[in-house]
Each structure stands twice: as structure tokens, then as C-alpha cells.
Amino acid sequence: GAVVSQHPSWVICKSGTSVKIECRSLDFQATTMFWYRQFPKQSLMLMATSNEGSKATYEQGVEKDKFLINHASLTLSTLTVTSAHPEDSSFYICSASKVRAGVSQEQFFGPGTRLTVL
Amino acid sequence: AQTVTQSQPEMSVQEAETVTLSCTYDTSESNYYLFWYKQPPSRQMILVIRQEAYKQQNATENRFSVNFQKAAKSFSLKISDSQLGDTAMYFCAAMDSNYQLIWGAGTKLIIKP
Question: Which chain B residue has its CA at the smallest distance from A110's CA?
């Protein structure tokens, strides 16, 4: 159990276009989903935290108008990179957590999406 | 704010040897969780082991065990009988009160045949 999928696994787009990445919890309800960005040979950088039915909370320095996050259901969150530019090229990872007895004990990770903006 | 420090950027050992990866953290939380995640070349993050801070007993998962020193705020990972498939980036992380993970910089572990 506790499987998280991401789609697409990789995407190439032209500069100025928008790209949507989906994150789904396949066998559990995720009250909270997290979006990370990872540069080569670096650690994960948290971009935003999204709770189902409410607006995402963005980390300092992350442009919320550029990285639109929607968490419409307990099994789906989407990240849309708007007007993408080459500097947005990166590896994006989502994770989902389920809360038991009021405590979230673990995040389950998707396989990641490699975005290349030409 | 919580911080997690991994001071070993890269380590290399022979297959079947034992290796220990270091991690220290700083937190003001009274209860918290600590994690070790593995990221192989596929880049899928895989949970290796989890430790609840209020439990004194060190967590173990088969060949993986931790040495949790709460007073010293140290959380090292020991891999016994290392295997080629253990080659990966290993990240230490602490969960804060908002359920967010605070990540270390990672240690690249190479298992040599």
C-alpha cells in the first residue's frame, strides 16, 4: 500500500508554454501533499504544501503565480508551471501523507517528473 | 527552525562491508520523527528507516539500523553486509510540527564489487 504516482514522468516543452504535472495517491487518501524541486546532485527543496480543499502554502521564494498548485481531492494534486522558461527545467517530486490519529508519520513519494524547457 | 546536517558528501565501501552514515539535527520540538531515505539512480525516494524520538530503542530494518543519540541530536545509519544495490544517495530528514520534512544535503554511497 501507500503508492503515489506522477504523470508525466518526463516532459519537454517550449519556452512560454504551461505544463501540468499530476500527483495521485493510488491506494490511500492523502490529506496533505507536498511538491519538491530537486536540482542535480542536490537535496530536495520544498516548494509548497497543499491540503485538500484549501489553498497551497508556498515556501519563501517560490512564485505562487508561476507554480500553480491545486489539490481538488484527497487523491489528486496538480502542479502547473506557467509560462515555463529554461530555468524552470528541473526534477519535480511530489509526496503525500496520510494522517492517522492526528499524526502524520511518513511521506510517500512519487517517482518524479523531469521537466525540460527549451 | 529545524536543521539537518550530513557531513559526508560521499562514501565508498567494498561489497559486504559495514558502513555508517552520519546525521545530526537541531530541533526545539519535544516529539518528532527522523527518517533515512534512499534515492537510487532511478531517483525514486525510498524510505529506509524511521525513528520516533520518544522511543529510546534504536530502529532496525533487516540490514539497516540506526544509532539514535537524542541528547547529542545524532541519528546515524548503519548498513551491514552492504550490497551493490545499496548504491544510492542517502538523505537524512526530520519531520517538523507541520508534517514537513527538513532534509540534509545527502550522502552519496558507492558500493564497490
Answer: B44
- Distance between CA atoms of A46 and A58, rounded to whole angstroms? 9
For residue B98, the model assigns a pLDDT of: 77
| Residue B70 confidence (pLDDT) | 93
Query: CA B23 from chain center: how many Å?
Result: 7
**Are the beta carbons of A44 and B91 closer than 8 angstroms?**
yes
Cα–Cα dist A51/A92, whole Å? 18
Q: Coil, strand, or helix at residue A63?
A: coil
A70 bridge partner residues: A78
Q: Residues of chain B whose pLDDT is less than 50?
A: none
Determine, for residues B105 and A43 on separate chains, whether the beta-carbon distance falls below 8 Å: yes
Chain B residue numbers touching A95 (CB-CB < 8 A) = 45
Chain A interface mutation, best of B91, B101, B109, highest count of A Cβ atoms under 10 Å: B101
Q: What distance in Å separates residue A65's CA from the closest CA in chain B?
A: 22
Instruction: Identify all chain B residues contacting A34, using CB atoms and an 8 Å cutoff.
Output: 100-101
**Burial letters for A33-67: b for 16+ Cβ neighbours within 10 Å, e otherwise?**
bbbbbbeeeebbbbbbbbebeeebebeeebeeeeb
- The per-residue pLDDT for A7 is 97
Q: What is the rounded distance in angstroms from the CA atom of residue A56 to the CA atom of residue A69? A: 6
